[in-house]
Amino acid sequence: MSSTTTRTLRRTALGLGALLVLSAVVAAVLFRLDGGRWFIVETPSMGQSLPVGSLVLTTPTELGAVADGDVITFRNPESGVVYTHRVARVTDAGLRTRGDINAAVDPWVVGADDLVGGVSFSAPGLGWAIQGLPLFFVGLAVVWLLTIRVAVPRRYSWRVVGVSLSLAVTTFVLKPWVGLERMTQAAPTDGSRGVLLDVVSTGLLPIEAFEPDGPASVPLVDGQVGTLHLTTGADTGAYDVLTRLDLSFGWWVALVLFCLLPLLWTLAVGLVPHEPEPAFEPAAAA
């Protein structure tokens, strides 16, 4: 592949990327001007309906247009904190809400002044990407500046390594892949020793939550709630729970290939012959 063709493909890819980013920005501005709002879910209270890291878009709605079962975004009448919960009951005083995995209805009543809007669109996982974009782009800018004077083809190889490192740092900071939160803990109803612990997955990948030195385990996907009967900490009252990935063989293969992409790319770039880039020569004075 000639250097001219490579530069053309690179410029085309950059142009398409810039066009996509510009289109997304324009769409976001128009949506905001029309009264829409967007939020990123930070707590697991909505379970699998809206897992942690979901992007939620809301549109303005009147209190009288809300019905039982609708998912709405509102401000806590007491603290002003924004929540996205499901309407459990419409009353004359306002709306009673509840998170899908919460045991009880929220203690407040949502009035017209507290209502932000109804959820019109949600995308699990997209909020993680939006949160990570600023840090990722900073990493890309640093990589580009550090490699601008590196000769081809090493420049491409170093940039692939830099992009991979930027992605790794971003995911290390956000930790979107695997997460687990403890919920409620209760004594077994049959009188057996130990505790029943409810846990919820807050990461994008399927996991298995398990008792380190006991038989209890439960598979979970993003936003799913599971119950563990823990017994090994009964004597001390300290119950430990660990997690491990719970992927099928096909997903393991896909994950390994994804991790190897930077290596495969740098090897391909190093093996393909590249024409030297033309040296810059200043124009002769007239």
Automatic annotation (TrEMBL):
<keyword id="KW-0812">Transmembrane</keyword>
<feature type="transmembrane region" description="Helical">
    <location>
        <begin position="249"/>
        <end position="272"/>
    </location>
</feature>
<protein>
    <recommendedName>
        <fullName>Signal peptidase I</fullName>
    </recommendedName>
</protein>
<dbReference type="InterPro" id="IPR019533">
    <property type="entry name" value="Peptidase_S26"/>
</dbReference>
<dbReference type="InterPro" id="IPR036286">
    <property type="entry name" value="LexA/Signal_pep-like_sf"/>
</dbReference>
<feature type="transmembrane region" description="Helical">
    <location>
        <begin position="128"/>
        <end position="148"/>
    </location>
</feature>
<feature type="transmembrane region" description="Helical">
    <location>
        <begin position="160"/>
        <end position="178"/>
    </location>
</feature>
<keyword id="KW-1133">Transmembrane helix</keyword>
<keyword id="KW-0472">Membrane</keyword>
